[in-house]
Specification:
The strands form 3 sheets. The chain has a 6-stranded mixed beta sheet with strand order 8-1-2-11-10-9. The chain has a 3-stranded antiparallel beta sheet with strand order 3-6-7, with no helix packed on it. It has a single domain, classed as Beta Barrel (OB fold (Dihydrolipoamide Acetyltransferase, E2P)). The chain is mainly beta and 143 residues long.
């Protein structure tokens, strides 16, 4: 029996992405984001989640992201307490551990991706939450 990884298949910033379910606390319905005047780069604001403020990622801070995004339908809450706005949810998929490919060279999202996974006849990008957080820290330091 081969080991599998459970992934959330979603749409964010105009792209189809995969997120490891093990990196998620939960996925919740979207709510209005309150902007933070002078807030850190890469964060569009906060939402109230379980009685605490949850910072929400600003996808436009990522190189290659469209300036205008579709409406958010859900927020993926990562374990390190960061909300990822999602434009759509497809569901969960199981991917074989050995089914991964390298990311496409030259992809502006390359620094936050862990690779490509073939799901059916499509190659979908796996978002790496640790790389995403590292990018946010670099943005904050460069401020």
């Amino acid at each position: 029996m081969s080991e599998t990884l459970l992934l959330l298949h979603a749409r964010a910033a105009g792209r189809e992405i995969l997120l490891p379910v093990s990196d998620l606390r939960e996925v919740v319905a979207s709510t209005a984001v309150t902007p933070l005047p002078g807030g850190p780069p890469g964060i569009q604001g906060v939402v109230l989640h379980q009685g605490e403020f949850l910072p929400v990622l600003d996808w436009t801070a990522i190189q290659g992201c469209p300036a205008r995004l579709e409406p958010t339908v859900a927020i993926a809450v990562l374990r390190p307490r960061l909300g990822l706005p999602l434009e759509g949810l497809t569901g969960t998929v199981a991917a074989p551990v050995e089914g991964w490919l390298d990311s496409v060279e030259g992809d502006p999202w390359g620094p936050i991706l862990a690779g490509l996974c073939r799901i059916g006849d499509r190659d979908l990008h796996l978002l790496d939450p640790d790389r995403l957080l590292a990018m946010l820290h670099r943005l904050r330091k460069g401020r």
